[in-house]
């Protein structure tokens, strides 16, 4: 995209350009192109003309990842993080069936979206949630969970694979869209052992009380154990954590990271299957071309 917009095609120029110059060019291209998904406009790109030639699923199918263990997963409320980008007139947690990230791109998708909405809304774990919450959950699956599960399913055919769902409710009352949810990136203070530092507080807030403090420290201990076990051996199991079952596409065993870590088979599976079908006919990047 940047090459197309600037006309600079020489690899030598791009490799030698100062960082400040590249950042300036990126900002100028972003302003010129614009997009309802402008935050993702410089996301990784693959294809025959790029450094990365294949999608992850194509790479797995080609045998490029055989024997490489994988641990992959998603946060329970990924998109709530993007409330940091809210404007006075647009709030990501206040989307409606008529006005949302999907209909912004294709207004004609609303009837199909309503079918999905009804499915998501009937789940007992979501009956109390608002219209905006349900739309956000649909966006989470579209942007994160479906593809992550698809990669896990394919990789499990060629190597041991482990899937997780991180579901710790953070404490940021000044960010109502994120408060008591598990937004994108909120697992990082647990994995890197910083829940009791200012950097950790910036991500997940301070403990609500002593019980919450104990819960988050226990979860931090488990998270560090899991990630270091996997980094060393390719297997997250060990120590005092519950047994983490190798991923199977049929049962989708998922380690749920919350106050009591546990394995749950195929959480929100009907939603996953319905969104997978929806994604076959609606691609946000195709719609933007």
Can you describe this structure?
This protein has 289 residues and is an alpha/beta fold. The chain has helices at residues 2-6, 11-16, 19-33, 56-61, 101-105, 110-121, 131-155, 188-191, 198-204, 210-233, 269-281, 284-288, and strands at 70-75, 161-166, 253-257, 262-265. It has a single domain, classed as Rossmann fold, CATH 3.40.50.1820. It contains 12 helices and 4 strands; from the N terminus they run H-H-H-H-E-H-H-H-E-H-H-H-E-E-H-H. Strand 3 (253-257) and strand 4 (262-265) form a beta hairpin. Helix 6 (110-121) packs antiparallel against helix 11 and helix 7 packs across helix 11 (269-281). The longest helix has 25 residues, at 131-155. It is globular, with a radius of gyration of 20 Å. The mean pLDDT is 90.
Number of helices: 12
Percent in strands: 5-15%
- Helicity range: 40-55%
Provide the gyration radius in Å.
Answer: 20 Å
Count of domains: 1
Shape summary: globular
Q: Report the strand count.
A: 4
Briefly, what CATH class?
Alpha Beta
Q: Structural class, judged by helices and strands?
A: alpha/beta
Quick one: CATH superfamily?
A: Alpha/Beta hydrolase fold, catalytic domain
Record the strand order, biggest sheet: 1-2-3-4
Based on the coordinates given, report the CATH architecture. 3-Layer(aba) Sandwich
Give me the strand/helix succession: HHHHEHHHEHHHEEHH
Low-confidence stretches: none
- Alpha-carbon distance between the two ends: 12 Å
CATH topology-level name? Rossmann fold
Largest sheet at a glance?
4 strands, mixed
Average of per-residue pLDDT values: 90
